[in-house]
Every structure is written in structure tokens, then in C-alpha cells.
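#structure-requests
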Amino acid sequence: MPRKKIIKPETKEGEDINEAQAGDYCYYLNASNKPVFAEIQKVGEERGMKILHLMCQIDFKFMNVPASICSFDEKSLKGKKRYDLCPEVYGG
């Protein structure tokens, strides 16, 4: 029996992450600073910062991350560090 092909959902490439809505797909930087694919569950704001409630499509875990470490384009996150993009949260 042939294997079922897995189709990855599309992201809004080229758009600003601040325009994200629930149900969209994006990339975020994980703890190892690697871009990971996730679905946006909720969008909120905390301490003047936009927060995205994500469900990781690799580990299927939920997390809240600042929008500054997320992007619709995977290439825009490659080589970046979490603490450089959001020093208010991850700074040392």
C-alpha cells in the first residue's frame, strides 16, 4: 500500500508577523535557536508586547512566545538568536 503524503500547510510569506491571526502557521525560534513550524492558536498582548500562543507541529506542545522571535518566512530566522531578537525576555 502506498504511503500517504504529508502536506505542510502554507504560511503567509512576506507578511508582517504582527498581522498574524489565530489559525495561521508560522516559524519560531526554539530553545536551540532553530526555526520550528507551529500553528498560532491565540494572539494576545502582555506588558506592551505581542504574544503568540503556539502549538508546535513537531512536538505538539503548546507555548507562549513573543512575536519578535516568530516569522512567516523560515529564512528570515536562520542564523538569528532569541536573545538578540527579544532581549526583554531572553536577555542575560
